[in-house]
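Quick one: examine the sequence and fold tokens given here and explain what the tokens say about the fold. Here goes:
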Amino acid sequence: MKRTWENYTRYMHSFKNLDYLSQLRKQPVLSVHIVCLGNICRSPIANAVLLSATKDLSAPKVKVDSSGTGAWHVGQPAAEYSKQVWQDAGYEYEHLAKQFKVDFFQKHDLILAMDLSNRNNLLKLAQSESDKNKIIMFTSFDASKSHIDPDGKDGNLLSVPDPYGGSIDQFQSVLKIIEQAATGFTSWVRS
């Protein structure tokens, strides 16, 4: 049996408030914020990919931004290999790193974490249940991973590996993981 995206959302364990999730697609604008550790590797790649994947959507129009939980790279451009892999794949995007701020919970509808550590850091920053309900693992939108509970024994399978300091092959692998999740995200918005 082929699952519809309505069925997938039933399995998206990251959301405690499924009504909130279904309401987001009815808004005129959906603001998404992607978070990794330093905002120079994974989240900028995801920002570039998701901007491209959602650029033709109009109901809702999707706005995408990103940051890191740490402040080490604030004001710096994306890592060289990050920019190279998204440009080689045909994505256009310019990036300067910034750090996640608590008020981002109010500015954005969804906060997409790249790994479980980032998710835990975001949960600690959340000041309400409403803030916590906005946090989801980015790869939960990948149809093959939507059933995974981030708090369960297989939660680590939702993490996008951090390629920082690694080879271009590692960055290319990250790009593929992100593209799969972005495809799922776009399908969910359109469903």
